[in-house]
Amino acid sequence: MLKPRAQSLRQVLLGHELAFLVLVAVTGAMGAAWAYFWQQTSTESLRLNGLMDAAQDIQTLVFRQVKEVALARLREDPRASELQAQFYHQIQDHFNALRQRSNSRAEDYAVQHMQEAYSRLQADMNSMAEDSFLLNRIVRSKLLDPRFEVDLVQGFETSFKEIRGLIAQELGGQAARIRAWTHYAPYIVPVPLVIALGVLVASRSSLARGFVRPMRAIMQGTQEMSAGNLDHRLPIEGVAEVAALATRINQMALELAASRDAVIEAERQAAQGALVPVIAHNIRNPLASIRASAQLLEHTEDRAETTELGREIVQVVDRLGRWVSALVSYLHPLQPQLKAEPATQLFEAALELLKPRLIEKQIAIVREPWDPSALVAVDVDLMEQAVYAVMANALEASRPATALTLAVHGNADTVILSVTDCAGGIPFIPNPADLTPGPTTKRFGTGLGIPIAFKVCRAHGWTLEFALVDNTGTKVTFTAPRAPHPT
Fold first, then answer.
1. pLDDT in tens, 283-329
2. Which residues in 433-472 are b (16+ Cβ under 10 Å) and which e?
3. Is 472 helix (H, G, I), strand (E, B) or coil?
4. How confident is the model over 18-43, as pLDDT tens digits?
5. In what order do the strands lie in the sheet with 463-469?
6. Nearest C-alpha neighbor of 390 from the set 474, 279, 295, 487
7. pTM for this structure?
């Protein structure tokens, strides 16, 4: 059964970022739903109250019509018919407005019943107006009996009460929904906070499981290997980059062990035995940087800081993987893959790895002269080792609170890179034809940094020279052909 492919650190960080985005989206959606509910509730309340006001306006107009038209006919006012027509058209306009405010079939039916009741009332009033004797008798009865108006508009009042009851029922249902939302709000609002806490815990657990613990195992395993135990194997676990690094280190240890056991000649055995501490020397500083970042990851809760630390770790892990591959090839002929790159980039990459030691010894970096436009044809992975070895030696020999001077300059055909320290001068002038480790004053040094630098420069067709500077320090100069700018 195939083992599922491990996630990369980038994918893990992307997953955490997406989880936070989903959390933000859920929170925003809840806020939008809440705002939408209140907006809809407010709009519906205004509509229902407007509907009630319009119905009451019609009721008022109907009562006025009954009173004023009856009085006008009692006084035999010739404008009585005109007054009745005015009331009729005015009430019909109110019915049209009432229909426009209606928003359901039940409301439409209630408005229709009310309008039909008014039509019957209007017909009764018209029939009374045709018989003047009946009109006079009814009007006199109305004047003498207050119940006349109630009897005349009783059918209309019934329809009015029907629509008023319907509106009151709808307002009651709306109030019930508001009470329900208010009741469940204290339980819904904490949900995003609970989700955020879960995402944070899952994020920390995932990073610890996929990166921090596997890197701790790699640190311990490389210490075993640097002590000479090449049979030790690192566990292949964690995110893809860490698993790939462990695989490469295991492969490196396997190849070194095989070469050590297979090669009997003394010189090859000596070179092979010396290579192991060189590898440990070259990966110790990057791993220390990775470990420091990993420890920060265990204690940070800021998503932006976590992402930035993750990216830095990915960069250092990728560079360390390339270095391991390049160092394994030390016993074999080097075949640089040349590409036009700024010469200053070689120094910047080495400075990034040496930053903790520069800070510890308070070493100032002086860039003079400094030409970022100078290009060289270089295999960056290989040449970084040479530049790093030279700068590490200069830094190790320098006294605290002094300076290293880095220079990049040249002419139309040549680019010169130099490192000048104030360490009092190198105790010997290295021989480019001799890869035997020279004397070293470093407590844990191997003396192989300079031979590796010579070998890398020779493979590139560069020259590497060492010179004393007024008995105050050493100047190391790389001379390389200038690469043309891409068109």
1. 676 777 777 777 776 777 777 777 777 777 777 777 676 666 555 55
2. eebebbebeeeebbbbbbbbbbbbbebbebebebeeeeee
3. coil
4. 777 777 777 777 777 777 777 888 88
5. 364-370, 403-410, 414-420, 473-481, 463-469
6. 474
7. 0.38
Domain annotation for the chain: domains and CATH numbers: 10-188 (1.20.120), 207-331 (1.20.5), 339-481 (3.30.565.10)
Burial (0-12, 13-18, 19+ Cβ within 10 Å), 54: buried
Q: What are the strands, taking DSSP E only, across 371-402? A: 375-378
pLDDT digits 0-9 by tens, 384-423: 989 998 998 888 888 899 999 999 998 989 999 999 998 8
Of the ranges 156-160, 176-180, 337-341, which is most confident? 337-341
d(CA 45, CA 56): 16
On the question of a cis peptide bond just before residue 427, with omega within 30 degrees of 0, the verdict is: no
Tell me how far CA of residue 88 lies from CA of 76, 130, 279, 286, 296, in angstroms.
20, 17, 103, 93, 83
